[in-house]
Design the sequence.
């Protein structure tokens, strides 16, 4: 059986194709880049619409299958930007109706986790989900992914992008900042905000931006990333201890950061825990993760009627029952 998944929650329009054994046959994406940085939802949605057919055709060619061979069409129902979500949903509904095949409307955050578990073979990890809009520490408890701790203001990825913009870096700033981190030599004192198992990044960002031009840039970037990632590592360690787990799965776009991976790995080694990180193309937003979660839901009897498949901008991951 084959599932075709559509990701369109923010910058990325992605199409993935997965079979029921968990083999990823295609993972193709087009990514919206604004010359000004940041994202205007309607501009990204226009980009997704313009690229939809091309990306679908490339994915089908990569998988070597015909659209008629697809058994289920899946899309990311949320969370995400309304106009962007609607493009993916409309394309999926159309394909489902034309080809008379079932439809799955899945949670984007759960999809990040499930593709991570599939590809790394992590069994029952503490999940660190870090992307533009999301920063959450998660564990599976009683058939739902529960949020153990999360950001109280902005997502880690958005914080890095905003800071990068203030520095005059191109979007996405994350990979550039990550390289600069390793060039920094001296730590500059910046806010470190952990409240129980929650974190906050806005104060850290503001304080760092005030120092731009007044201190060496590499030291400033080093200190900003050091604090942000140390905060995340502290909360992750607390979650590991509290839930008595010994695995950490890092997912989401910021999971590509070598600086963050290094810090989490150090903590995991000290605790005899194991760190799992999928390949970059499956950390950042992608269609394969939507295809795979759609397949899991389909196998467990969960599909959705087209008429009831409206998008959910604030779709929480706890709403998805984990039946597998
Ligand atoms: Fe994401």
Sequence:
């Amino acid at each position: 059986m084959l599932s075709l998944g559509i990701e369109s929650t923010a910058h990325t329009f992605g199409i993935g194709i997965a079979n029921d054994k968990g083999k990823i046959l295609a993972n193709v994406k087009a990514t919206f880049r604004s010359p000004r940085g940041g994202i205007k939802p309607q501009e990204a949605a226009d980009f997704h619409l313009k690229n939809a057919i091309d990306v679908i055709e490339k994915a089908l060619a990569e998988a070597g299958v015909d659209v008629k061979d697809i058994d289920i069409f899946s899309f990311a129902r949320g969370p995400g930007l309304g106009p962007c979500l609607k493009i993916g949903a409309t394309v999926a509904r159309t394909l489902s109706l034309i080809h008379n095949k079932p439809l799955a409307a899945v949670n984007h955050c759960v999809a990040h986790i499930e593709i991570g578990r599939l590809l790394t073979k992590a069994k029952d990890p503490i999940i660190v989900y870090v992307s533009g809009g999301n920063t959450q520490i998660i564990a599976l408890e009683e058939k739902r992914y529960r949020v153990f701790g999360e950001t109280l203001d902005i997502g880690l990825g958005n914080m890095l992008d905003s800071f990068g913009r203030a520095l005059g870096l191109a979007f996405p700033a994350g990979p550039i900042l990550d390289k600069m981190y390793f060039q920094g030599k001296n730590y500059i004192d910046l806010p470190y905000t952990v409240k129980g198992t929650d974190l906050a990044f806005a104060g850290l960002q503001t304080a760092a931006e005030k120092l731009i031009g007044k201190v060496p840039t590499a030291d400033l970037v080093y200190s900003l990333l050091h604090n942000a990632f140390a905060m995340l590592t502290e909360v992750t360690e607390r979650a590991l201890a509290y839930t008595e787990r010994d695995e950490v799965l890092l997912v989401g776009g910021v999971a590509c950061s070598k600086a963050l991976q290094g810090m989490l790995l150090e903590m995991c080694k000290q605790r005899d825990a194991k760190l799992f990180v999928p390949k970059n193309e499956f950390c950042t937003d992608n269609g394969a993760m939507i295809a795979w979660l759609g397949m899991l839901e389909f196998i467990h009897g969960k599909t959705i009627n087209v008429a009831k498949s409206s998008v959910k901008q604030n779709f929480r991951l706890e709403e998805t029952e984990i039946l597998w």
